[in-house]
Specification:
Layout: H1 2-22, E1 32-34, E2 41-45, E3 51-58, E4 63-69, E5 72-78, E6 84-91, E7 95-96, H2 100-107, E8 119-129, E9 135-143, E10 146-159, E11 162-171, E12 190-200
Antiparallel strand pairs: 1-10, 2-5, 2-12, 3-4, 3-12, 4-7, 5-6, 6-8, 8-9, 9-10, 10-11, 11-12
């Protein structure tokens, strides 16, 4: 699963580069790939222009499952020195995988336990240059009573008073001890993906 999605993500990167080439002559200053630090200021996630989801394998790895979270919010602060802080808060009951019975199972105490833990939260700790075409993010994902330290690449694009951040990370929820691995419904690992548009707060 990981290799397939990593391959897909590479293509997303090429798409960004290709689109940039197509519009070089008209929009040189409109879109800028950020490789060092984000613009200073306070930013808020525009949920209407953003997407948060996960992808996993079910039926013993034979079926791909995509679950979209329809309600989330977030904020980001960048200081004058380039230091960052922020959170992305996801409402777990807003999960939609396209099958109502499966969604009910995923919201139940066997998985997200949305009644007891209505939110899961990613807290940003660091965002640093990678020396390549992306930034390296470090932070913690709080799911129920489990804190998962995460590090992953993020692609950042500035467009006027908007930022676009896109990244993904594989979560080994079985190794994290969440007890979610049930081969018929969800495998041992899931890929979390986020494409966020932020506006100045």
């Amino acid at each position: 699963m990981t290799d397939d999605h990593e391959h897909d993500h590479e293509h997303h990167g090429h798409d960004h580069e290709h689109n940039g080439d197509d519009h070089d002559h008209d929009h040189d200053h409109d879109h800028a790939l950020i490789v060092d630090r984000l613009p200073e200021g306070s930013w808020k996630v525009d949920a209407h222009g953003s997407e948060v989801l996960f992808k996993a394998r079910a039926l013993f790895g034979l079926l791909s499952v995509t679950g979209v979270f329809e309600e989330f919010s977030g904020e980001l602060t960048v200081d004058a020195a380039g230091g960052v802080s922020g959170q992305l808060v996801v409402q777990t009951a807003s999960l939609n995988s396209g099958i109502a019975r499966r969604d009910a199972d995923l919201r139940s105490s066997s998985y997200f336990d949305s009644a007891a833990y209505p939110q899961m939260t990613f807290t940003l700790a660091k965002l640093e240059p990678s020396g390549s075409d992306h930034l390296d993010v470090t932070g913690t994902l709080q799911i129920q009573q489990t804190s998962l330290p995460l590090s992953f690449p993020v692609y950042a694009i500035a467009h006027g008073d908007h930022l676009h951040l896109e990244g993904s990370v594989v979560l080994d929820h079985d190794a994290a001890g969440l007890g979610w691995a049930k081969p018929v419904l969800v495998g041992k690992r899931a890929r979390a993906e986020a494409a966020l548009t932020l506006t100045r707060g």
